[in-house]
Amino acid sequence: MSLLKNLIQQAKKPDGVVGRIMIMIMNSAHHKKTKWGLLKLNLEKNSSVLDIGCGGGNTISLLCKIAYEGRICGIDYSYEAVKQSIKKNQNAVNTGLVEVEHGSVLKIPQKDSEFNYVTAVQTHYFWPELEASILEINRVLKNKGKLMIVSETYKMEYHMKNYKKSRELYELLEKCKFKNIKLYEDNGWVCLVGSKSVV
Q1: Cα distance between residue 29 and residue 167, in whole Å
Q2: Euclidean distance between CA atoms 107 and 127, whole angstroms
Q3: DSSP for the chain?
Q4: Which residues form the domain of 103?
Q5: What is the pTM of this model?
Q6: What CATH number does the domain containing 84 carry?
Q7: What's the pLDDT tens digit per position in 130-163?
Q8: Residue 89 needs a FRET pair 20 to 30 A away by CA distance; which of 61, 82, 165, 189 works?
């Protein structure tokens, strides 16, 4: 496997020593724009939040400072990412504020209508079936619950066959029954926030 392909695979599903290094890099590199995206959600201290593709736990760590009386869950399909995310947020895991487990966005291991918010930072372009994944996210959101997707635009263009542009992703959220969708762009980054429509 070429070096580039190996690095892409490690970004997608970190594993071993290289995976741990990749996770540390991602935690640092994504920190500022994760905060930028979270500000669009108006989270409350008792919010319930699911972070999909939680990686090294940076988003979870930021959520703990806001939703400190709520419930924060993280899933990742990399066992190494789950391990590192727990390690980074060990105190919050110990108190019961945070739960992190292995799981896929195509089959989220939580019940229907469990969360006020779902976050996905620098991960959706790796999902194998984007529309099916977004519909699965819709399932675990409460009515009027919000989905936030944050990504670098060049990574969408590089990794994705479809929905390479932020406007296309906006339209996909509409197709998957999200309403009041907001699109924010800043210096090569995009943040989309949509609300689950009331059934």
Answers
A1: 25
A2: 12
A3: --HHHHHHHHHHS--HHHHHHHHHHHHHHHHHHHHHHHTTT---TT-EEEEES-TTSHHHHHHHHHSTTSEEEEEES-HHHHHHHHHHTHHHHHHTSEEEEE-BTTB-SS-TT-EEEEEEES-GGG-SSHHHHHHHHHHHEEEEEEEEEEEEHHHHHHH-SS--SHHHHHHHHHHTTEEEEEEEEETTEEEEEEEEPP-
A4: 3-196
A5: 0.90
A6: 3.40.50.150
A7: 999 999 999 999 999 999 999 999 999 998 999 9
A8: 189
